[in-house]
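Re: that backbone. Tokens:
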């Protein structure tokens, strides 16, 4: 019997709002006939990123798209790897003769190292190899002196206390995502000046092993051949990559991800400008890192996709509401020490709903 070659796996990681989902959409849209399975690890209760990926124009029906997107809920992959990741991978391994590649998008709060180490397990290692870990960097955020949000506030604090960044969970997560990378994409390069981009390149390079390549991109638009087929075999050398969180996987109970909350809020239809103004105020007042979800706008037949990093919001109408679909606004807010009830009450008051 013919022995099947190992199935290559690309792990896409990166901080909140760096553009991971956009990169995956680009890869799927340009698959060029490759049979690709996708695993989405969503931080929070709502599968927002999974829904976005299922809207990709990859030449398949919605039912077929749903069948090829495996969505892992309830937190980061390093926390759920034994409970959820292994059964999904076992199913894909059983079908590897029908697949050419697997893409895994980690949560913006996930640690890539323990996920890569999972590919050392005998049942997975015999059938799969990590082609590469790709870390996507939000270049404007790094240029502003932070990693995801509040550039002015964080930069001011950093100038007062140069050690602050290195003590924060955000910086450690950022550094750990870079430490596991085989390829780093400086995304949104078109949104900052050449001088700032050069400074970001130097800053990021300081966190990387010498062999790791840095490339620039706008909205993740890169040739597929640059992104897959790297043959890194990351599981073979991941143990030698230092991580700030290594000790958390050696029997200690502490877990820095507990510093982050992900809450979901459901609202009725709302005026678009009122909703965005209310969300901006909420972000500033409560230090919310990330906002994403779908909004129902009165008298609009399509739902509004909202993705926010700090006070920067991207939005567009992504698809029509289904005939039997409830026209409600569903949002996920990610931050630290968030009070779900208070946030929902403030949103409703601002929207008068």
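Recovered sequence:
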């Amino acid at each position: 019997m013919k022995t099947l070659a190992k199935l290559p796996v690309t792990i896409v990681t990166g901080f909140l709002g760096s553009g991971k989902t956009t990169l995956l959409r680009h890869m799927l849209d340009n698959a060029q006939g490759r049979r690709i399975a996708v695993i989405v690890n969503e931080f929070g209760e709502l599968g927002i990123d999974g829904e976005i990926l299922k809207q990709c124009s990859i030449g398949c029906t919605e039912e077929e798209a749903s069948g090829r997107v495996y969505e892992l809920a309830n937190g980061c992959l390093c926390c759920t790897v034994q409970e959820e990741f292994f059964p999904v991978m076992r199913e894909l391994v059983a079908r590897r003769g029908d697949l050419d590649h697997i893409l895994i998008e980690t949560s913006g709060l996930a640690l890539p190292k323990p996920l890569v180490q999972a590919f050392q397990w005998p049942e997975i290692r015999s059938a799969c190899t990590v082609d590469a870990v790709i870390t996507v960097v939000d270049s404007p955020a790094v240029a502003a002196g932070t990693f995801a949000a509040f550039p002015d506030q964080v930069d001011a604090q950093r100038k007062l206390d140069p050690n602050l960044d290195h003590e924060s969970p955000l910086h450690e997560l950022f550094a750990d995502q870079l430490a596991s990378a085989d390829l780093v994409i400086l995304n949104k390069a078109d949104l900052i000046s050449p001088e700032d981009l050069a400074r970001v390149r130097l800053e990021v390079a300081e966190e990387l092993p010498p062999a790791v390549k840095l490339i620039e991109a706008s909205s993740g638009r890169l040739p597929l051949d640059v992104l897959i087929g790297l043959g890194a075999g990351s599981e073979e050398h991941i143990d030698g990559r230092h991580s700030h969180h290594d000790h958390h996987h050696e029997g200690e109970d502490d877990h820095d991800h507990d510093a982050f909350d992900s809450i979901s809020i459901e609202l009725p239809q709302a005026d678009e400008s009122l909703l965005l103004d209310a969300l901006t105020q909420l972000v500033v007042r409560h230090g919310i890192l990330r906002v994403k979800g779908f909004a129902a706008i009165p008298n609009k037949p399509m739902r509004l996709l909202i993705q926010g990093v700090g006070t920067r919001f991207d939005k567009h109408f992504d698809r029509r509401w289904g005939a039997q679909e409830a026209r409600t606004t569903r949002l996920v807010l990610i931050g630290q020490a968030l009070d779900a009830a208070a946030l929902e009450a403030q949103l409703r008051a601002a929207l008068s709903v």
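The chain has two domains: 7-240, 260-351. The domain at 260-351 is CATH 3.30.1220.10 (Hypothetical Protein Yjia; Chain: A;domain 2).
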